[in-house]
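Last lecture ended with a question: if I hand you only a sequence, what can you say about the shape of the protein? Today we answer it with a concrete record. The protein is peptide chain release factor N(5)-glutamine methyltransferase. Below, first the input exactly as provided, then the predicted structure, then a couple of comments.
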Amino acid sequence: MNTAYQSLCARLMMAGVPDARFDAVQLYKFVTGRDPRLDNGPTPDEASSLRVLGERRAAREPLQYLLGEWDFMDFTLKVGRGVLCPRADSEVVCEAAIELLKDAEAPVVYDLCAGTGCLGLGIARHLPGAAVTCVEKSADAWPYLTANVAGTGVQAVQDDIFTYYNRLPSGEADLIISNPPYLTAEEMAHLMPETAREPAMALDGGADGLDFYRLLTAHYRDALRPGGWLVLEIGCAQAADVLALGAANGWVNGSCRKDYGSNDRAVLLQKPEKSC
Ligand code: GLN
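The predicted structure:
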């Protein structure tokens, strides 16, 4: 009987950790390299590391931060305190962009508010001809982004998207993708304990959660070539508002995609082929 694993499970359950068993298995594997369900127990050193990590998880530090890396699509990203954890929900946003670009030869792509770089890196992996630039303002997120893009050919730029559009050439980009902060003030006041440990800067979308969509729809059309796309992750209740912002700012062919949990998750907006 692996009593160390049993007590880790019990500790995490008592702390109200969602998916306590899953997290216990991951932490045990991380510390020992072995599956707790097939193992007799940790060494004394392993047991003490496990206790420390168990207490941190019981205090609701995100599992992703404790493990230091997390999978997204078919690759693994470095994560930690100071950067938004990549989420499975965002995979459909990346897949929508890859589909839009599948016939493009050497598409120019920007990932704005890139965080770990998950969206831009996902595009680059699936479209090896793409020239991808990940833009991130946060000094705390920056080391994760640079570590993740290293050796991939993806560029990282530290800049503020509220002014970055002034530095982009006109009409050259094929696609801009972004998972901007989009939580409302009300949502920010009621975060899950784990989300509250993630950077507010990556989550806080202003009073109604739409500040970044106003900016992106108003200022990032010029950088795209005619027919280019803006692909946005959204909160599940924001599709109508973001589509309306798109229409009001001269974008066409707006549509929404759901994630694998059947929630609205991506809005796609196209720059008109011809300006009229
Ligand atoms: N999907 C995240 C959450 O619900 C929010 C991400 C964001 O604001 N970009 O916690």
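Comments.
1. The domain at 81-270 is CATH 3.40.50.150 (Rossmann fold).
2. The chain has two domains: 3-59, 81-270.
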